Structures are given as C-alpha cells and as structure tokens.
Amino acid sequence: MRQIKLKMLKSCGFFIARRLLRVDMVGPPAMMQPMDVFNTIAPVFLIIALGAILRRIGFFSADLTRGIIRVAYWVGMPALLFLKISSATRVDGASLQVFAVVMIATAVAMLVAFLSGLIFRIPGVQTASITHVSMRGNQIFIGLAVIFYAFSNANNGSYLAKVETVAVVALAPIVVVYNVLGVIILLAGQHKLSMSAVRKVLLGIVTNPLIISCTAGICVMLAGWKLPLAAGRTLGVAGQVALPLALLGIGGTLAGTKIRGHLGYSTLAALIKTAVCPVVGFAAIHMLGLTGPEAGVAMILCSTPTAISSFILADQLTDDATLTAGGVVLSTLFSVVSLSIAVSYAVRMI
C-alpha cells in the first residue's frame, strides 16, 4: 500500500512539474539542439554540393546546368507558388509584416554598401555591384527550402501550410522589388539609366514567371475557387521537383563560376548580405512586434545568401560580373552560419 502511495505521489509530482515547466510532450521542442539545426540546414547545402560535384566531374555540362535552372525557374517554382497560394484559405497581415521586415533589412544593407563605397573610395561601378549583391537574397530557392525543413517538425499539416502560405505570399512583392532595384542599381552605377531601361524593367516584371504565378494564385484564392483535383495533383508533382532541381542547378552554377578579381569587394558584399541583413532583420522583427512563426519566416528570409539571378543580371548589364559572381559564391558559404542561427531562432518562435 505504501508503494502504491509513493507511485501516486511521484505521478502527481511529475504532472505538476510538467505544468509548471510548460512542457508539451506532443509539440516541437522549445529549443533546437545543434544536431537539429544541422539536420535542417544540411539537406539544402548537401544538394547544392552535389550539384557542384556533378558539374566538376563532367556529369553536368554548362548547358545542362542552365537547363535545370530554367526548368526550376519557369516550370517548377511557378507551379509550387501558384498551388500554395491558390489553395490557402485566407491571408492575414502576417505576410505584409514579413515583407516589411525584409524590405527594412534590404534598405539598410543597400545603405551600408553605398556608404562603404564612399568610405573606401570604391569606384561607382563596383559600388553598384556591391550594393546589388548585398540586397538581393535567394529567398525563392534556398529560403523556401530552409523554411519547409525548419517548420516540418510542427506535426500539424494545417500549421505548416499556413507558414508556407505566409512565406510565398510575402515573396510575391519581394520578387518585384528585387527585379526593379537590381536593374536600376546596376545601370545607375554605369550612368546608363534611360527610358529604354525603364521599359526593360517593366517588361521583366510582367513576364516574370514567379510574379505571374503569385498574382494568379492570389486571384484564385480571393475568388474562392477550388482547383480541380487533377490540376492540383499535376501542379503538386511539378512543384515537388522545383527545389531539388533549383538547388542542384545552384551548385552546378557555382562550380562553374570564376571568382577571381575584386575578391575583397566580393567579401565585403557577402558579409553585408549574411551579417548586416540578419541583424537588421532581427531588429525590425522586434520593432514591428512580429511574433510566432511569422518572425521565424522573416528571419530566415533575411539570412539567405545572394541569389544566382544577381550574377545572371550583372552578366547581362555590366562588362565585368566577377565581383557579383564572387559575392554569390562567398555569401552562399557564409550563409551556412547565418541560416543556422536563423533556423534556431525560427523554431523557438513556433
């Protein structure tokens, strides 16, 4: 009888301790262990590394790498974005707040890059390239992949779907801003702004597949339409290949990218992108009072490396894209640290 009473007391004590410590045995842990962070980040960068290895050993040619990126950009990712947005039940102000945080971080990064050019007396063309590398993050390919992995342990399908929707809806205006600013910054650095340049910017916006898919998805969502089952499944299959293909393509592109020349400038730009942006993003999150998973999404988006599209655009608009290429490669390496910190923060916000 005494043993039974002791067992009952122990059970009651354990129950009270759980309530006082607010331990939830079903939900995700409040603190993410280093191994959990590694398991979240590693798949993204291992697939990028695989793409680089395949390019180095000749399994991927330059043409095949460009083809992979094009399929992900023109087919896979638009299908993923359209499906996620159109199937959302509602969108609140969280996406707008995430967008605001990313824009604040982007603006400060651009300012730091510009002031660095003045302080170190960097020529205007190189200052423009540094600014471009500092402001344009790879939120679409790397950012979304990290978000999906980071919140996949929520054990709640509707919760994960809401987080994904907040992320993709916030990315729609971000894509527009990045495309406009990228062209303006690079052309302004060469004093080549003109009406033809403005027309090129507008044409790039209205023909951007990511912008088109996001806009179409928002229209379907607001109209309350439901996609036919066959259409939803088809888009789902196409969307599933987007992130793996994109990450393989990024690795293959980085492996074939030469970063010699302006290495100091590239390092400066990469540090601004992966150090200044996350710090400013963290401050903006608290300034705007953003909490919960939305804060984690914003933090991850602010911690991404420079997008591959920055190099593609610089190669089209400038005579020397090596600074941008170096910034893309170095920021991708540095982002292992910034994204690890961001993921740890994001999971605590669940």
Task: Give a verbal description of the structure.
The protein has 350 residues and is an all-alpha fold. It has helices spanning 2-21, 34-56, 62-86, 94-119, 124-135, 139-150, 157-189, 195-206, 209-223, 229-240, 242-255, 263-287, 292-302, 308-317, 322-348. The protein has a single domain (33-348), classed as Na+/H+ antiporter like fold (Up-down Bundle), CATH 1.20.1530. The protein is built from 15 helices and no strands. Helix 4 (94-119) runs antiparallel to helix 5, helix 4 (94-119) packs antiparallel against helix 12 and helix 5 crosses helix 12 (263-287). It is globular and about 55 Å long. The two termini are 44 Å apart.
Please outline the helices and strands:
Blueprint (H helix, E strand, L loop, with lengths): L1 H20 L12 H23 L5 H25 L7 H26 L4 H12 L3 H12 L6 H33 L5 H12 L2 H15 L5 H12 L1 H14 L7 H25 L4 H11 L5 H10 L4 H27 L2
Helix pairs in contact: 2-6, 2-11, 2-15, 3-9, 3-10, 3-11, 4-5, 4-7, 4-12, 4-13, 5-7, 5-12, 5-15, 6-7, 6-11, 6-13, 7-8, 7-9, 7-14, 12-13, 12-15, 13-15, 14-15
Q: What is the third-level CATH name, the topology? A: Na+/H+ antiporter like fold
**Using only CA atoms, what is the Rg?**
22 Å
Task: List the helices and strands in order.
Answer: HHHHHHHHHHHHHHH
How far is the N terminus from the C terminus? Answer: 44 Å
Major sheet characteristics:
none
| Shape, per Cα inertia axes | globular
Kindly estimate the percentage of residues that lie in beta strands according to DSSP: under 5%
Look at the structure and give the mean pLDDT: 84
Task: Please write the CATH class name.
Answer: Mainly Alpha
| Tally of helical segments | 15
Helix content: over 70%
- Class by helix and strand content? mainly alpha
Total DSSP E strands? 0
Total domains, how many?
Answer: 1
Low-confidence stretches: 1-30
